[in-house]
Amino acid sequence: MGSNTLMHHYVGFSYHPKLRIPAFGIACSSEVVGVSRRPVLEQMDEKLSKGDERDALILVKDLRGKPGGLRCFGAARQVPQRLYTLDELKLNGIETSSLLSPVDATLGSIERNLQLTAVLGGVSAWNVFGFRPQLVFYLSLGLLFLWTLDSVSFNGGVSSLVLDTIGHTFSQKYHNRVIQHEAGHFLVAYLMGILPRGYTLSSLEALNKEGSLNVQAGTAFVDFEFLEEVNGGKVSATMLNKFSCIALAGVVTEYLLYGHAEGGLADINKLDMLLQSLGFTQKKADSQVRWSVLNTVLMLRRHDEARAKLAGAMSSGKSVGFCIQTIEDTIGDADV
């Protein structure tokens, strides 16, 4: 699950003493129903649909922190940034082995079943229709050619499209997991001050919107500020923290809901590549990832209701503005 830029699972607390962390919440409120918020969000949606990302971000920033405005945008309070040990993460109910090593068992099972079906179907056709060995050989050669063409020309996009479509059609768990994964990306990005600009929940939807087989389900962001820093050769600590938490938000959501992550390997790989490009040592990279995991887990645990309602809005195909309205209406003073 990924996106063009970042793209792209829950254990409870133990009874052991936990790492003591200062108050962590979102300084926002839904007490005042925004008289000005809704029309501004509609304007923002219009700007995003036209590709005017800078103007859309200006609208959001102008409404940030105002009564009845967008008080949750960029309002996430961060845990202290330092090197956290694995034991400290475990005391907060976080098993990194189940979180940072996602294996997509659902699609893997579907792929194996399709391969087995193809083999059995070929053998049955051979026996029933009396196909000559030469014909079977040519058919196998043709299938191998198509598979190679997909791998080389489309980076496996056709295979991914077929598997993902079958997964969404026949596995409700897979369908729900993808939605929750992307809702995690969306929510954490918004709370960290990065504006989502759109999302897709399946490879087929991505193909219809983007017209490319190489685009999978994912959430895209208004990230020109981040790209400007990357192109300038220097990424600020603030921007890196935002990127890290957003990149891990999908796998963290899956971990919190299902006890392990299946999707999001591409997100983790992108974060690893960024840290390597910045010249991080292994110790420094571990420190960044562990802090990001803890920060994101606590954020999503605290705002579980907002994530759930956001997932509902996204599953219905609502606009970015409607999704933001959902977040703002759900997170109130009692959640701070």
Molecular structure report:
The chain has 336 residues and is mainly α. The protein has helices spanning 37-49, 53-63, 86-91, 96-99, 105-129, 133-153, 157-170, 172-192, 203-210, 224-231, 237-258, 265-277, 282-302, 304-315, 320-330, and strands at residues 196-200, 218-221. α1 (37-49) runs antiparallel to α2 (53-63), α8 packs antiparallel against α11 (237-258) and α11 crosses α13. It is globular.
Low-confidence stretches at least 5 residues in length (pLDDT < 50)? 2-27, 29-35
Bin the helical content: 55-70%
Distance between the termini: 30 Å
Biggest sheet, in brief? 2 strands, antiparallel
Mean pLDDT: 81
Number of separate domains: 2
* Broad shape: globular
Portion in strands: under 5%
Number of helices: 15
Layout of strands and helices, then pairs:
Layout (H helix, E strand, L loop, with lengths): L36 H13 L3 H11 L22 H6 L4 H4 L5 H25 L3 H21 L3 H14 L1 H21 L3 E5 L2 H8 L7 E4 L2 H8 L5 H22 L6 H13 L4 H21 L1 H12 L4 H11 L6
Antiparallel strand pairs: 1-2
Briefly say what this structure is:
GO terms for molecular function: ATP binding; ATP-dependent peptidase activity; metalloendopeptidase activity. This protein is an all-alpha fold.
Keywords:
Stress regulated protein; ATP-dependent peptidase activity; disordered N terminus; 336 residues; 3% strand; two-stranded antiparallel sheet; single chain; 15 helices; Peptidase_M41-like; metalloendopeptidase activity; globular; mainly alpha; ATP binding; 2 domains; 62% helix
